[in-house]
Amino acid sequence: DTGVSQNPRHKITKRGQNVTFRCDPISEHNRLYWYRQTLGQGPEFLTYFQNEAQLEKSRLLSDRFSAERPKGSFSTLEIQRTEQGDSAMYLCASSSGLAGEPSTDTQYFGPGTRLTVL
Amino acid sequence: GNSVTQMEGPVTLSEEAFLTINCTYTATGYPSLFWYVQYPGEGLQLLLKATKADDKGSNKGFEATYRKETTSFHLEKGSVQVSDSAVYFCALSDQRTGGFKTIFGAGTRLFVKA
Question: Over its length of 114 residues, how does chain B's per-residue pLDDT go in tens digits?
């Protein structure tokens, strides 16, 4: 069990560019979450996958954002035409699904990808 | 909708002092409640949780009791250490009324002085 990993750890980009982040969950965890965290705030939910199915998306996830989990293992989060307001820490978490309902699951967080849009 | 409100920080305490960080929630159903901690330079990690009313979660000397009557889940520790300095987040999740999302409070930063 090596924990949740995220790459890159830091990304600096210019406004209007596209960026893609990767999350590798704990192996065999079938539940995967993306969050966004800005300075001084708690994480805000973006989207949830159960295996390869994207079951919920927040209204924060505008049409410039897309997330995939093609084989039910790693996931990618892409932001197109980045804006300065997209600057934040993007967090990925996974959980095993063994606890039953997602509400009771323990989520394990990765270290995050810090995005800076200039 | 569901929401979480926690006390603003920073909270500054001397070592061995008693800690309380208040957390109240609004929910239409029966959520699970969590405290997460973020130590400097590290990722978020679960500190404790409670999944039904009157449950007490505990870990590393920290405790929190799920109080449905007051919609609260206050975090307490009897004697804090310098190593407890971190940001603490209260959170809730309720699939039946709130979907798959976990809702976090804004976080409370704790500084413990030696």
Answer: 889 999 998 999 999 999 999 999 999 888 999 999 999 888 899 999 999 999 999 999 999 999 999 999 999 999 999 999 999 999 999 877 777 889 999 999 999 999
Q: How many CB atoms lie within 10 A of CB A65?
A: 18
Please indicate if any CB of chain A lies within 8 Å of the CB of B51.
yes
Does the distance separating the beta carbons of A42 and B107 come in below 8 Å? yes
Give residue B114's identity as a one-letter amino acid code. A
Of the residues A103, A105, A114, the best mutation for testing chain B's interface (the one with the most B CB atoms within 10 Å of its CB) is A103
Length of chain A: 118
Question: What is the rounded distance in angstroms from the CA atom of residue B14 to the CA atom of residue A62?
Answer: 45
A56 with B44: Cβ contact below 8 A: no
pLDDT in tens, A48-105: 999 999 999 998 888 999 999 998 899 999 999 999 999 999 999 999 876 667 677 8
Cβ neighbours of A75 (radius 10 Å): 25
Put simply, whether B94 touches A (Cβ < 8 Å) is yes
A97: left (phi over 0), alpha (psi -120 to 50) or beta: left
Q: Which chain A residue lies closest to B5 (C-alpha atoms)? A: A42
- The reply to whether residue B104 touches residue A109, judged by beta carbons under 8 angstroms, is no
Question: What are the tokens at A16?
Answer: 């209007």
